[in-house]
Amino acid sequence: MVRTGxxxxxxxxxxxxxxREAGVSVPTAxxxxxxxxxxxxxxxxxxxxxxxxxGYVRRPRFDAAKPPRLVDLVVHSLDSSxxxxxxxxxxxxxxDAGLDVVVSAALSRTRAGxxxxxxxxxxxxxxxxxxxxxxxxxxxxxxxxxxxxRIPFVMIDPxxxxxxxxxxxxxxxxxxxxxxxxxxxxxxxxxxAVIAGPRRRMSSNARIAGYRSALASAGVGHRPxxxxxxxxxxxxxxxxxxxxxxxxxPPTAVFTCSDRQALGVYEVxxxxxxxxxxxISVVGFDDLPESRWTTPALTTVxxxxxxxxxxxxxxxxxxxxxxxxxxxxxxxxxxxxERSSTAAPRVRTG
Length: 350
What we know:
This protein is of the alpha/beta class. It is about 40% helix and about 15% strand. The protein is built from twelve helices and 14 strands. It has helices at about 15-20, 25-35, 40-55, 80-95, 120-125, 140-150, 175-185, 200-215, 235-245, 260-270, 290-295, 305-320, and strands at about 1-5, 5-10, 70-75, 100-105, 130-135, 155, 170, 190-195, 225-230, 255, 280-285, 300, 330, 335. It has a six-stranded parallel sheet with strand order 4-3-5-6-7-13, with helices on one face. A six-stranded mixed sheet has the order 9-8-10-11-12-14, sandwiched between helices. Strands 1-2 form a two-stranded antiparallel sheet. Strand 11, helix 11 (about 290-295) and strand 12 form a beta-alpha-beta unit. The longest helix is centred in the N-terminal third of the chain and has 17 residues, at about 80-95. The chain starts with a strand and ends in a 13-residue tail after the last strand.
C-alpha cells in the first residue's frame, strides 16, 4: 500500500509487469500505452488486454501545475450536417474556455458494431483532460475504461440511454414530437403518420411518445399502421413512405423523425406525382441546412445541436475542475420552424 495524506490506495502494476504478462518487451508495452502506431495489431491486442486485466492506470501526461488545455471530441463521422453543427458548438465554447480540441472520427468498428477503442488509448498519450462523445453509444468496457483512468466525459445526444451516473446533453424530444403533431392537427389533419428511427433509440421513442400524446389530447385515435420504425436515413424512409401510400386510407400528413427521412419522403411523393403540401404535408426533425434547400422548404422541429454541444463542453470543463453537475441529464428545448411543406388537407379526414 502507498499512502497520500490520510488516504490509502493500492499501488498499480508497473509497466514491466504488464510487459511480462503480455509476453513483450517493456519498450513495446510503452509504445502501446503511449498510442504509438508502430506496433503489430496482435501485439497491441495482447498488451491492451494485459493493461485492462491488471488494472494498469494510464494517466494523462500534462503538467498538474498548469490548467488543462486539451480536450477530445469523438464523433461517429465527419460527413454530415449534424456533425458540423456539433463541431461548431464545441469550437465556440472551447475558444471561450481557452481550450484546444482534438477531433476524432470513430469510423472503425468491431464485429458487434461498436467503435473500437484505439482513440481511447491515444487520448491519454496526448494528455487530454476530458472527452466529449457524439457517438451512437459506448460499450460497458469503454465506460469502465474511462472510469478506471479517471477521465471526465460527457455524452452529446446519446442514442441509447446511458448509465444513470453518466452526464449527457440532449434535446426535449418528447416535446418536439408533441409540437410537430399539434401543428398538423391545427391545420386540420387527422390521418397523421410518423416515420421514426430504430426502436431502441432513446430520441426516437420520445418523439413517438410525444406524437401519440398530442393525438390523444386532441381526441384523435391512434392508428398502429401509421407508425413505421427504421433508420434515420432516406433509404428506409422511402420504403416506409411507399407502404403508407399503399394503405387503404393513406395519411394526409407525415411527421418524420429526421430531416434526412423527410428528403426520402419527398422523393417518393415525386415518384407518385404527389405534391407537397397540396397532396400531403411533411414535417421533419433537426432543422439541418438541407431543410431550407428543399422545394418546398421543409417545416421542421429545430434540434439545437450546436447549443447542445456547447453546453456539453461547459459541463465537461466543470467536471475537469472537480465540480460534479447536480443532475446527469440536461435537455435543451426544441421549437417548430414553419416553412412551406405543411398546409390544410385537401379533403376532410375521416
